[in-house]
Specification:
The complex is a heterodimer of chains A (755) and B (445). By secondary structure, chain A is an alpha+beta fold. Chain A contains 19 helices and 28 strands. With 445 residues, chain B is of the alpha+beta class. Classes of the chains: A alpha+beta (755), B alpha+beta (445).
């Protein structure tokens, strides 16, 4: 057992000692199978060592990240090691969890075992070099447990260091073009919510690939990237952006089916990558001025490293010599690097002066971006004011017939018109945060003109497969995604999906409109205009009707269904407290069917009672024997309330992903302080309202008489000016509400977290 | 033309979160690939929705007009097989300490049931949901269809130690609270044509819900809001408590005394196993709101595992299957099982009486059944590779008996029993089967 003996208080790793006291304390947790655990009565898989004072809630959440699946026999040393960086919240605080989970032979009961070492860092403990660099530091992560069950007095101190882009040699070896590291980095930079899958052979060390790609990002962005080098499933509430899956695994198959993800198949060379500046940086490397700081707080001595350092091996030879990487990684030689991709000589010239790190457009920190926005706005406002004053002056001069040559300002007209559009009342206020950047790529383009967004780019289909199987999305490069988003700035991923689906023809199951069964509201007649349910039937067939699942009936009238000639065709199967009541009659009016409530049930009050909690109408086709079920749901108005914890300005984006909606009227947003924030008048997916309010309580209310939607779904998307909304900020982060209003319809409301 | 009718259950129970719900409340799972994002299951899961549009086959149409066929629980949003709307679910809980052999027992049980029920008892035994049963099917393949059947294979390679996280669990997010549920193994049991109750198949058919918990879950303090992984015990129709005599030092001593050949065998670890049963009793009482002294009305079957190791401790090492076949249909010999139960109980009273006290203090009816999932003791494999066995040599002993006995006694209409001899009353001595037995007649159930 080669465990690093920590002797309790101070870690004895090959780390740079920290020269200053760290006010915050990291936590650690060792999880494995042992006869006894740290907690009284624990045995088997349990925590065997943890930092003293680690909060129980945090401990529980971190323990839940300790899952491991043996790829090979538990005794096989070639089982992969799962390195991960995940973020989670506990007790109102955000943590970064660095984990190393590996197979650990047999346990005390002669069964398969694993060992998980977690290091939990707070935001001010993060070295600039990023999580992959830290994971690869020799000795920082334990490789085995020394058998001592104990409380650790303190957590280990993360060494400081920075990394800057170098030629991504590991990527070049595997993909044939180092630029693919840039593709991965750019994908994250453009849409942090878009998962990326790296499909690898199990023998390949994935941490080096991740580290190289992370080094292309800004220090802040590096710690936003969550990843797992052996991804076996998503832990709920813990996102994972970069997922390494192994060829032939179930996860690899699933990855091919998930729409909208970036899938890089690195089991074979991919061909030339195309993209923006990060792709070029990945190819030629770039030396930037080291950032002598931690992400938040830094006065710590800096340990400078390059991504090609021995701590982050990137070449096959370096990988083989890495002491930190497990034997299977060091024993296995990577395939020889394929010939370099022919490209423009000037692009790969190493003598190119690297631009400063912070000037790279895709990786500008949000604070810098906000300041830049403020400057732009100030300049714009000044220009606008000057223009107005100038125009006023010119007009005044004209009015007094003073012959002056007007001063034209062609240089400012174009940007002014663009910026004016951004500030139109239909749009949200200019956003500076990353979330806003994701939502409104136009803002990014306006403020940071970037040639890559305008380039037509083609990416080999093999390299970037979209899980939906859609060829269009399969070949779309990340930069094209930006272009798409720019064309439809108010739509995020679900809305884009909705828009894409509009191009799909309606399902073939939908029959012509004269072949439906329409159930009217109680007391009324059915008609296509006043339908309650819309169920398609073959006119030549005979059907029987069966109402089942009734929970509650408040009238005492007999309940049965009859044909128009009075023949009883349905008897209620319900054995509840109110059964045997006549409900309605079915008439065959060729080619459609007409449903009418029985005379005794046309009273409005009774009708309300009758329809309450009706469950399922079973309609059986006598010709085929097939049954269909139609839900008859109780009319009930449910209010949805979403409470945010912070006072801030939020932007609500409403849209409806349903493509087959009738016009929607008067979906009213209310807050505690403002009676009406806005209305949503149409159900079409394109009609998106962005409503801004400075309130942190949102109530959705429906106005029943004006609703004429059938099966609509609405999305309320939250975003905040100046930053993203963290899931922990929402009392109800995401909610589905099924609305039944006046017995006419069902409306689904989804409140989704902003991305 | 006869119209096939479907009788929906009111209500049914979700096998994941054990919530009861009406069939009309069940959610459908969108099939269009663009409809992703569920508040409970995350952004990469298909949307769940309550439909208003259906096609002629009775399948819901999602908002893109695509036909959906999968259903989901309205509470936890996890997939629910359609058969659960029509067939009553029966929950069976298997509990025991770590390394007592739960996974091996479960694997041997299901494998043997697939073979025995159709051929001997006129019942079909099939996966209700192949996706959720996949892990168990892999276990079965590893034990009984192993390509290296004639080689010594380490036990650790056959069935891995059950994890506390990962693919055996589903995590659901309720607001900010994550809850991890064990993934159920679902099987349908229904009469075949030659079964006496074939005509009433819909009435007597069952969906069996089994769980492969890690032993750690039954230890004190391991049941929490975030991980209510053992709460199926409160819903269980029958509780199977696995007791591993080889983990009891008193049994170990007895085994070595009576079987000197085992004296050199590596000593198994020891643990207090009755604590797990007491903890389980406490949890069941808490969930059901029972008083501390109240006995659970559901039967408890104490399954003594690794019978092949300690069989010599019983007066008669009778390993023959306890059923008789008459007119192509087998009837369970309840008397033999109950006699064996008495013998086992007497042995337990002698060696570890606290277990008997704990079991009979918890449930009204307790029966003791010896089993062996492997049928042969594993041997010490290569250096450092632990115990090993040749898969071809695996011949389970009485692995299905606890289950068959439970079905026969407490799931009427499925398993016939052999007619009792006149004057024989299982409760004559009052022990062996704690409590009283229902009268059983021939093949009637």
């Amino acid at each position: 057992m080669d465990a690093v003996s920590r002797g309790g208080s101070s870690p004895s790793m090959a780390l740079q000692p920290d020269s200053r006291a760290i006010l915050t304390m990291s936590h650690e947790l060792f999880h494995t199978s042992a006869p006894k655990g740290l907690q009284p009565g624990a045995s088997g898989f349990c925590t065997v060592a943890a930092t003293r004072g680690i909060p129980a809630a945090l401990m529980e959440k971190v323990e839940a990240l300790s899952g491991y699946r043996h790829l090979l026999s538990p005794l096989d040393p070639k089982n992969p090691v799962a390195y991960s960086h995940l973020r989670l919240s506990a007790l109102g605080k955000s943590y970064h969890v660095l984990s190393r989970i590996c197979a650990a032979g047999l346990d005390y009961s002669q069964r398969s075992n694993k060992f998980a070492h977690h290091v939990i860092l707070e935001p001010n403990e993060l070295p600039s070099a990023g999580p992959a660099w830290l994971l690869a530091r020799p000795g920082f992560m334990e490789t085995s447990w020394d058998g001592q069950i104990r409380l650790l007095p303190t957590g280990r101190v993360a060494p400081n260091g920075d990394a800057f882009p170098d030629v991504c040699r590991a990527w070049q070896s595997l993909a044939g073009d180092a630029g693919w590291a840039g593709v991965l980095a750019e994908t994250f930079d453009q849409n942090t919510g878009r998962p990326a899958y790296l499909l690898l052979q199990p023998e390949v060390g994935a941490l080096a690939l991740i580290g190289e790609a992370l080094a292309l990002l800004s220090p802040e962005s590096r710690w936003l990237v969550t990843f797992n080098t052996y991804f076996t499933g998503l832990h709920q509430g813990t996102p994972c952006a970069w997922r390494v899956v192994f060829a032939g695994s179930d996860e690899a198959k699933k990855a091919g089916r998930v729409p909208g993800v970036l899938l890089l198949d690195l089991t074979a060379p991919l061909g030339p990558a195309q993209g923006g500046p990060l792709v070029e940086e990945a190819r030629m490397g770039r030396r930037a001025a080291p950032m002598n700081r931690r992400i938040v707080d830094s006065q710590k001595p800096l340990e400078k490293v390059r991504s090609a350092d021995k701590s982050m091996p990137t070449t096959p030879a370096a990988l083989a010599g890495s002491a930190d990487l497990p034997p299977w990684e060091s024993d296995t030689s990577l395939p020889p690097a394929p010939p370099s991709i022919p490209r423009q000589p000037q692009k790969i010239a190493p003598a190119l002066p690297p631009p400063p790190l912070l000037n790279r457009p895709p990786t500008v920190p949000s604070k810098v971006r906000a300041k830049r926005w403020a400057i732009y706005l100030l300049v714009f406002a000044t220009g606008l004011l000057s223009g107005v004053l100038l125009s006023f002056a010119v007009g005044w001069l004209h009015s007094v017939s003073v012959d002056l040559q007007p001063k034209n300002q062609p240089d400012t007209e174009e940007p002014m018109s663009e910026n004016s559009a951004l500030n139109s009342p239909d749009s949200s206020p200019p956003a500076a945060g990353s979330a806003e950047r994701d939502k409104a790529p136009k803002l990014v383009r306006a403020s940071e003109p970037n040639a890559k967004e305008k380039k037509p780019e083609k990416v080999p289909t093999k390299a970037m497969q979209s899980a939906s199987g859609s060829k269009a999305s399969a070949t779309r490069a990340p930069s094209n995604q930006v272009k798409d988003d720019a064309q439809k700035p108010l739509k995020n991923a679900p809305f884009n999906a909705a828009t894409r689906a509009q191009a799909n023809p309606p399902a073939t199951e939908l029959q012509p409109v004269n072949q439906f069964l329409a159930l009217a509201h109680p007391g009324g007649q059915s008609s296509p205009q006043a339908e309650f349910i819309h169920s398609y039937l073959y006119p030549a067939h005979h059907y029987s009707f069966n109402l089942i699942g009734i929970k509650e009936l408040k009238t005492k009238r007999p309940l049965k269904l009859e044909t128009s000639d009075g023949k009883l065709i349905v008897r209620m199967e319900n054995s509840g407290k109110d059964t045997g009541m006549e409900l309605a009659r079915i008439n065959r009016v060729d080619p459609a069917l007409e449903f009418k409530w029985s005379p005794g049930n046309q009273d409005t009050r009774d009708a309300q009672d009758l329809i309450r909690n009706f469950a399922v109408l079973q309609i059986t086709d006598r010709e085929t024997g097939a049954s269909q079920y139609v839900s008859l749901i109780a009319p009930k108005i449910v209010k949805t309330k979403c409470v945010l914890k912070e006072k801030d300005q939020f932007t609500y984006v409403l849209s409806s992903p349903s493509a087959d909606l009738a016009p929607m009227r008067q979906l009213v947003l209310e807050s505690a302080e403002i009676s009406e924030l806005g209305t949503f008048s149409r159900g079409a997916a394109e009609d998106v309202k962005r409503l801004a309010c400075k309130d942190y309580s949102l109530t959705l209310k429906y106005v029943p008489p004006k609703l004429q939607v059938h099966g609509a779904q609405f999305v309320v998307e939250l975003s905040r000016k100046g930053g993203k909304i963290e899931p922990s900020e929402l009392t109800l982060k995401s909610l589905v509400v099924y609305q039944k209003v006046e017995g006419r319809l069902r409306v689904d409301v989804y409140i989704v977290e902003a991305r | 033309m006869a119209i096939p009718t479907r009788t929906l259950l009111r209500p049914t129970t979700c096998p994941h979160c054990w919530a009861k719900f009406e069939p009309q409340d069940i959610l459908w799972i969108s099939s269009h690939s663009d409809l992703l994002g569920d508040p409970r299951l995350g952004p990469e899961q298909p949307q769940r929705f309550l439909p208003t549009r259906f096609n002629l086959q009775g399948y819901a149409l999602d908002s893109r007009g695509f036909v959906c066929q999968s259903l989901a629980c309205p509470k936890c949003h996890l997939p629910v097989p359609r058969v659960l709307l029509e067939t009553e679910p029966t929950f069976l809980s298997i509990l025991g300490t770590p390394a007592c052999g739960k996974s091996f027992f479960l694997t041997a049980l299901t494998w043997e049931l697939r073979r025995l029920l159709p051929t001997h008892f006129g019942l079909s035994f099939a996966d209700a949901d192949t996706l959720s049963n996949r892990s168990l099917n892999e276990y079965e393949e590893s034990l009984f269809l192993n390509p290296k059947a004639d080689e010594l294979v380490p036990l650790a390679d056959l069935i891995r130690k059950t994890e506390l996280q990962g693919e055996l669990y589903n995590t659901v997010m309720y607001g900010n609270q994550n809850v991890s549920y064990p993934r159920p193994f679902l099987f349908t049991v229904q009469p075949l044509e030659h079964h006496p109750y074939a005509i009433q198949a819909p009435r007597v058919a069952r969906v069996l819900c089994l769980y492969d918990n890690a032993g750690e879950h039954f230890l004190t303090g391991q049941d929490s809001t975030a991980s209510p992984v053992t709460r199926h015990m409160a819903r269980a129709s029958i509780l199977f408590y696995l007791f591993d005599p080889t983990q009891d030092p008193r049994f170990q001593k007895l085994i070595r005394q009576n079987k000197p050949a085992l004296a050199g065998a590596p000593s198994s670890r020891t643990s207090r196993q009755e604590v797990v049963l007491q903890e389980a009793a406490g949890r069941v009482r808490r969930v059901l709101g029972l008083s501390q002294g109240a006995k659970h009305t559901r039967p408890l079957i104490v399954v003594l595992t690794k019978y092949d190791v300690w069989a010599h401790l019983l007066p008669e090492a009778d390993c023959a299957e306890p059923w008789v076949i008459k007119e192509n249909l087998a009837g369970l010999d309840l008397e033999r099982i109950e006699n064996r139960s008495r013998e086992v109980r007497a042995l337990l009273l002698q060696v570890s009486p606290e277990l008997v006290a704990a079991a009979e203090g918890f449930a009204e009816e307790v029966i003791y059944v010896p089993t062996s999932a492997l049928g042969e003791s594993p041997t010490l494999g290569e250096q450092g590779k632990g115990l090993a066995i040749k898969p071809a040599a695996i011949k389970p002993i009485w692995a299905t008996v606890p289950f068959l006995y439970g079905m026969c006694r407490w799931m009427p209409g499925l398993i016939p029993s052999r007619k009792r001899r006149q004057g024989q009353d299982s409760s004559a001595d009052g022990r062996g089967v704690a409590g009283r037995l229902q009268p059983l007649d021939g093949f009637a159930t």
